[in-house]
Structure formats: structure tokens, C-alpha cells
């Protein structure tokens, strides 16, 4: 079939802006006894500040600035919180719900600029306690609402500052080194760069001059300053007692990489390399790349060593070369039999890790966040690279709900500021639990259900909201069979979630991982009767890629590290295909929206994941779809999305949404498409890139979502708009419309609207489709895109960019002129004409 350009469309002009009203369901402050509670708060405030000051004096710190307190609030609305922050010039460094069962009860970590700001706050508390009617910083009513909401004021606890790796040392003090050792430190930060030097001086004074030291300058991300320090046991405790410290932990643990040979040393590939200067480009941030492999020697555009431990950009570990091979070639399994290998993506080699006893490690003198940021900014600036693969993570930092990780936030900031796409692996569990089983089927079910356990949750930075996170599924299901060796049992059939993969959800229950791809499979074997162990290097179950040595070309691996580059390969090709079609560099939103639009789940994947059992689920009902989304997201991406053709046609739109309005797209549905005797699908996807703030429990400054309507005319939608102008504004407004108006698509928007990457599918069998055949002359559907702010931010009046993608597809050979019928009935956007008009005006 011929490659055709995707069709760019425009929204309808029938909808005017409307105003969101405040939420009448916002929590109401508790009516407290002013005298009793006021005295309690006064005592807590006094004790806390005295403790902070005494600790600083003990450490030789004279500064009265940058005071951090923890406030436990009950029923504090967003308006009350924002008023407090603005009036006292405070900075909210963390906001999180303490107990999911009590969503109105929050922990707020507040940074006061100095002692004077704290005194003003205390003065207002005193006025409230005495029921003073006069206005000061706050009005009488504002004081009432604020201090009624505050339950406790206290220090940030020392225990909260101890990271998960360091906690193991405190549980077993014999592990502590007798001499100096290195720790990571996270420091509260209010975004004021003029205070960074002062903050560094506070930390240096706390560390003293007897061998402990801050190693280099602090590394700035939006909500934290990240650093690394050399400490002994005494100065470690000094840091843990310092109020400006958010977290202290041991450096990132090493990444386990399993390396096994897959093909013999005499395998000779036939290479068809026709890549030109405009071929797709992606950066591989890993342990380096072995450029002497004949399948890589001509596709590396640039190399840079950010980890200088080994003084070479070459890969001495193998992990980076394995990742790079898949980024360049995609699916090796498709070309092994023919021995013909055609590279499709050029690569940049960013060495951010080195080899250490078979594992990949970051350098000792830099935080991983810093070295990754340096690599991304360098390749973006020097090579205009916009696609990055990051197959690593911090296995000790499990996401348990609550606030975002620092590393993930840094990636989100880069994604938005540079308009790039970062693909991140979901992470692995190297040694999953082996549960008892009495059959092969029970073994596979146990391995699937085990994925819902705590140890399989996502790690930092896989929770990144604007990156694309990728989990692992199995490609091969049958282990090797050899003589004189015990039977091995595969723990997953083809396209099942790999037993070692990690699953979601992400921050605020976002869909994570969004995609899955092939990353290998484990087997079980018995060393002795009843003594069962994992076998991780079965030749038949590994994911094939490239070797980092001259002895042989290929190796096999297991891990989500090798699932992510499959997606990176497709992303790089999408970027270049879009640029060719629209005549300019596509936005990261459009690339991501097109990517997720391509994702599919086989019927077997859907059935297997929806039959899963989550032993930790305590709610009512049977949320099968929710379990599927956690296990495999939206499915496996497909490179057929690069171009349209006669039986698969993609429409797309890019726009910016004022959060006090909505956009409407009228999409024709050809009658021939609905009546064709073939399986048929309509897939709608949305991508947007909101501002992110680690300090806020919502994390995303706004949410966008969409609903798809059928059997609804423009007049009905305008009535709905008018209702919103005069009624309540909640995310449930669309949900409450009659179901008969909505197109039957899955999942529902309420299950995915907290995600920056969303996909919904209408799918019918060969005989299905009549549910959309409601207008004999010209059937159509409406797609309504809307959103809402979650917290106030500096760029609040700026509209939110987004990309919307709609794909019609059907199986079979009948030509129903789908492309022509869609193209002739939608509102076409002409970018070339728009550019010409701009040039004339200039």
C-alpha cells in the first residue's frame, strides 16, 4: 500500500470561552476553639523554632533564614492555601495527602524566607487566638479560615529524611563504614537562585572542616537542590537534624545486567545501510557503545563521555551496546533468518555509566540526575537531538504514592523546556518471589498476579509524567530442551507481562507504564528436588540484540532496559516522518500522541491481564480494565502509524487550550467504513505537557481530557456549554451526560485523565459498527477537549498546548476510499499557507 500523508485538521468555531466556577464541594474549615487551639499552635511554633535555632547553633550556623516547618492541615482548600502562601511570601516545598482514606488531611512543608516572615505568621495567629476583628496581613475572616485548618505545627521529622538505602544501615548499625563515606542529599528549594550560595554555606558549616565536605556545587531542579557529600557517622546525623534537608540517602545502587550469548561467533550478517543525513536520530544514554560492532560502526553520529571513570566512550559492560542495537534496528527477530539487517535510526552515544564487576554504575562524584541532565542538554544543543533513551533507574526508590521523585521531575522539566521525548524503562525486579504452584498454568498465573505486589512498583525515574515509560512483555514462550538437563518451565506465554517487570500506576494514578514491548522471559528449573530457582539466561527466551566484543556480533538480554529501545526506535522514526509530512519539526506532544495512538493489545493480552488477581485490592467490584492498564498500559506500539494508507487513515490536530474553555472537533464517519465486512477501529489519543511541581500533591498544574460523542448535534453541545457556565465545574460534568450520547470506547476518560498521554479505542467485529450509523446522510462524531487547572502557577494565563490524533483502520482487502472520504469532509489545516501569510506580514 502507498504511503500517504496524515491529515491535519482544525477544531470547530462554534464554542465560545466559558468560565469555570469554584468548586462548591471544596472542604470546609473546622470550627475550632480559638483560645485553646491558638495556645496549642503557639506552643508548637515556639518549640519548633527554638529546636531549629538550637540545632543550628550547635552546628555553628548563625543564619536565621530558610526556615522549614511542617504543618498538618485539615480541610484546607486551595484558595486558603494559596492566600497563605501569597500573603506571607511563603514557599510550599511539599504537599501530600497523609492518608488516602482522608483526602482532606494533608501534610504541608512550608519554607519561610526568614525569621521575620515566621514572626508575621505568628502575629496573625495571635490575632486569631484573641478574636481581634481588625485587618492586618489577613482579614479577620481569612485568619479564621486559615488557622481553623491548621491542626499541628512541627519540625520535619528526622525519620522522614532517611532514604530507603540508608535506612537499612540504621536498622543494622554494623553496616556503617568506620571512616568517611558518600551520601546523596536533597535540599528544600524555593526557586530563588540568590539563596543557593547561602544554602550551600549552611550545609558546609553543618559538615565542618574535619574531613566531611560537600562534593561540588548543588544541582538545581525546580523544587529541590541535589548534592553529594562526604560524611562520617557524626556529620551524617548533623545533616539529618538540619531542617533544610529533605532527604539523605546512599548513592544509587548498581544496575544489574544479565549478559548471555545468543548466536554463535561465526554469524555473518548482510548489512544494507542506506541512512542519510536526514535519517531519524536518537541519543542512547547508557554505559557507552561498542562502535566496532559491524552493525553499529556507520550509524554513530556523535559520542561524548559524561562518566569519565573509564576514559573511553566505548562500552566495557555490554548494556549500552545492547540498548543501542535495538534503537538502531528495532526488531532483530524479524531479520535473523534472512541475515539481512537494515539500520533505520542513527544514534548518539552518551556514556553516563561505567562497568563495575559486571554491573553498570554512575560515577562517584556526580548525582545521576546531574549527569543525565548534562547529557540531554549537550546532545540537544550540539546535534538538535529530540529523542532520548534512558534504560536505568534507582531500584531502591519505589513509588508508593505521594509526591514525585526528584529525578523524574528533572526529566519532566527537560521534556517541557526543550520540547523533547524521553523514553524510560519501567525497571526490573531481579529476583521475583517464586510462589508455590501445582501446574504450568498455575505457575504463570502466580507470576502474573505477583506483579501487583509492593516490590513490583515503579522506580525513579519511571514515574516521570512527560516521559514515555515502557514495561516488558515476553516474545518467546518455550525454553531450550537439551539432553541430560532438568526440565525448565517458562513463566510466561507470548505477549504476557514479563515476571521481572514493574507496573503502575504513576503519580496521581496516572497510566504508567504507558507502553510495553519485548524484553525477555525467565524460566524456572530445579537444582534438586523441591529446590526451585530462576533461570535468567535461557537462550530461547532472551531478547536478541548486539554484543560489545569482537568474538561474536549478537547477545541476548532480559529486562525492561531492552523494552524501552524498541519504543525509542519507533519514536525517532515518527519524528522524522512527521517532519517530512508537515514541513517542520513536530512538537513532542504530537510525537507522543501519534506513538500512543499506534499501541495495540492482542485479544490474548487483554484476556490474560483482565483475568489477573490483585490481592492488595480492597475496594468493591472487579476493576478488570484497571488491572490491565496497570500491567500493560495501552499496549505495544506499532510502526504502521508512520504514514496513512488506504485502510488506515490518521487525522491529527495541534492547538492551545484556554483552561476556561473547550475545543470541539467534528469528525466524519463514512458509512462505508461502518458497513464494511471487516474488523474496524477508531483510536483517539491526546498528549499534553503541563507545568509540573514536585512540591504540589497534584504535581501537574492542569489536567486535560477528552470525551467522544455520538448522536449529538451542535445545538445540544451548546446547551451543555451554557449549563457549565451557570453550574458546577467538576471533572464529572462530561460523565453525567446521558450514555446514549457517548461513543462506546475504552477506557473511560475518568480512568486516564490524570495522564499526560491518553488513548481510547472503539473496536468492532466484522458485523459491528451500527452504533455510529445514526445519520443516513453524513454520520459523524464529536471529540470535545477540555481541562482544568489544579493549582495556581506563574504562567497560569498561558494556554495549554496539546496534540490530538484520530486513526480509522479496518482489516481486509476491500477498498472503500476511506482516505478520500475523510479528507473531503474534515476542516483541513494548511500549514504552508499559514507560513506564507506570516512571511507576507513580516
Topology, element by element:
Layout (H helix, E strand, L loop, with lengths): L6 E2 L25 H25 L6 E10 L3 H10 L3 E9 L2 E13 H15 L10 H10 E5 L9 H8 L9 E8 L7 H12 L5 E2 L4 E2 L3 E8 L1 H8 L4 E5 L10 E2 L8 E2 L9 E6 L13 E6 L13 H11 L10 E2 L4 E6 L2 E3 L2 E3 L6 H16 L3 E4 L3 E5 L7 H13 L2 E5 L14 H11 L8 E2 L7 E6 L15 E2 L24 E4 L4 E6 L2 E5 L7 E4 L7 E4 L6 H19 L5 H10 L5 H8 L13 H9 L15 E10 L5 E6 L2 H5 L4 E9 L13 E8 L4 H13 L22 H4 L4 E8 L15 E10 L10 E11 L7 H6 L7 H11 L1
Parallel strand pairs: 1-30, 12-15, 13-16, 13-19, 14-16, 19-21, 21-23, 23-25
Antiparallel strand pairs: 2-4, 2-5, 3-4, 6-9, 6-10, 7-9, 8-9, 11-29, 17-18, 20-22, 24-26, 26-27, 28-29, 30-36, 31-35, 32-34, 32-36, 33-35
Helix pairs in contact: 1-3, 3-4, 8-12, 9-10, 12-13, 14-15
Structure description:
The chain is of the alpha+beta class and 842 residues long. The protein has four domains: 7-22 and 644-841; 34-156, Alpha-Beta Plaits (2-Layer Sandwich); 160-249, Peptidase S8 propeptide/proteinase inhibitor I9 (Alpha-Beta Plaits, 2-Layer Sandwich); 260-610, Rossmann fold (3-Layer(aba) Sandwich), CATH 3.40.50.200. The chain contains 20 helices and 36 strands. It has a seven-stranded parallel beta sheet, sandwiched between helices. Helix 8 packs parallel to helix 12 (564-582) and helix 14 packs across helix 15. It is globular. The two termini are 42 Å apart.
